[in-house]
Amino acid sequence: MDKARVEDRNGAPKEPLLHRFMEVDLELAPGVLVPREETEILGRTAIGLIKDQVENPLVIDMCCGSGNLALAIATHLSSARLWACDLTDETVALARRNAGRCGFSDRVHVMQGDLFGGLAGEGLEGRIDLVVCNPPYISTQRLDSDSAHLLDNEPREAFDGGPYGISIHQRLVRDALAYLKPGGWLAFEFGEGQHRQAAALLARARGYEPAAFAEDAAGLPRVAFVQKRPDA
């Protein structure tokens, strides 16, 4: 799919082509990750955790990219308020455009910063019902070898998860605890074969109940979801 604006025969800009994600039409742009089918597993899992369970939920979409998860959650949970966070100018600008396109600028607040640093001063500590995240999870070595083709049209920041592919997960699992209320949920995506690493990270954090996993169509774990312990 073309990810940039195109011009008509007279040189005037056309409407951008859109990408469908969980019943939401998203504008895409160069320099921003294209949402994958696997991430719909994360989106539907996250919605199921709080739908009909939490009144007026407060949600953080970390590493939000185009805003796809935040906007899908806002679409399916009409009472939710969301904060969508990412690092780069391109992703933040695109997520804000998509929030406006969907009519959710009043409920989806797009912030810029390094993970939870983008939420400093918002007063959200200990108040969040759900943190959802699709972080980079391909190792640097793989990105420079057999997965290098991913960088042909999309940015390294969207894929590079450090030496073992879990550098962002480590920070996410640790730092989400300060924002989640007791009993609040953390849900995140990871790569094939990384479920044991994900479970170990959550166990070492000592603030979560035992982890559960959602599987893809092939039966492979691809999403972890876990509650903050009441005493954490």
UniProtKB/TrEMBL annotation:
<dbReference type="GO" id="GO:0032259">
    <property type="term" value="P:methylation"/>
</dbReference>
<dbReference type="InterPro" id="IPR002052">
    <property type="entry name" value="DNA_methylase_N6_adenine_CS"/>
</dbReference>
<dbReference type="InterPro" id="IPR050320">
    <property type="entry name" value="N5-glutamine_MTase"/>
</dbReference>
<protein>
    <recommendedName>
        <fullName>peptide chain release factor N(5)-glutamine methyltransferase</fullName>
        <ecNumber>2.1.1.297</ecNumber>
    </recommendedName>
</protein>
<keyword id="KW-0949">S-adenosyl-L-methionine</keyword>
<dbReference type="GO" id="GO:0102559">
    <property type="term" value="F:peptide chain release factor N(5)-glutamine methyltransferase activity"/>
</dbReference>
<dbReference type="InterPro" id="IPR004556">
    <property type="entry name" value="HemK-like"/>
</dbReference>
<keyword id="KW-0489">Methyltransferase</keyword>
<keyword id="KW-0808">Transferase</keyword>
<dbReference type="InterPro" id="IPR029063">
    <property type="entry name" value="SAM-dependent_MTases_sf"/>
</dbReference>
<dbReference type="InterPro" id="IPR007848">
    <property type="entry name" value="Small_mtfrase_dom"/>
</dbReference>
<dbReference type="Pfam" id="PF05175">
    <property type="entry name" value="MTS"/>
</dbReference>
<feature type="domain" description="Methyltransferase small">
    <location>
        <begin position="58"/>
        <end position="149"/>
    </location>
</feature>
